């Protein structure tokens, strides 16, 4: 079986990313005929139709989308292998990419990063703070080495190696002096304005206490730069022990009685794909920091 050339594979991934040969050619400063020819040669090599050509441009076939996804992962592995080999000879920096939840970024990650940089003087780290679904896509493509996310999120971890990392409790909060500061029933919060966190959305899907609960007014954001000021404007929210401790001087815990609310967080990486030395060390360091962290103190 003939093997495709790297240039042909890169051409397909580029077209998949930009959605058209013209846009891909401009973005990568490649003549459009050269890119079209590379795609055509790739189709002949693998003996499969990978794109559908039409008046509005091209789209990938079903086989083309699956093939491009695998190729993207392979190309990322090639780049990573080169980078790691060069790093071992001192010719480039050691690189690591990780997707984090806000809770992880505000708790165990700073210490873990400090320990990593003490062990790898030339370490360059890239951090993504995206919803777990988006981080999973980046993990699948090889763009991320590791990701941390809520195991109860509306995302499938089945294709990855998943290691339990930590459990973290959550509580309802509001600004001190809020009219709902002493509420005891979830129904009392139904008319409140909400900073809607990912954990609240998970509870509304999976926790039976939330079966008849809905948010009438709310803003959905992961950003604390946006969310925390909302609490000072009378919003309520569901936050982790980590977040509550950080803003404790401004917040009151609302004593709602609806059973324990706990987030279960996992460390993810691609199954069957060897981790780099830096990724292996970061995974071990995160576990050590998670075991030592006080998750239950508010």
From TrEMBL:
UniProtKB keywords: DNA-binding, Transcription, Transcription regulation
Q: Which residues form the HTH lysR-type domain?
A: 4-61
Pfam name, any one: LysR_substrate
Kindly give the InterPro entries that the UniProt entry links to this protein.
HTH-type_LysR_regulators, LysR_HTH_N, LysR_subst-bd, WH-like_DNA-bd_sf, WH_DNA-bd_sf
Similarity annotation: Belongs to the LysR transcriptional regulatory family.
Protein name (record): LysR family transcriptional regulator
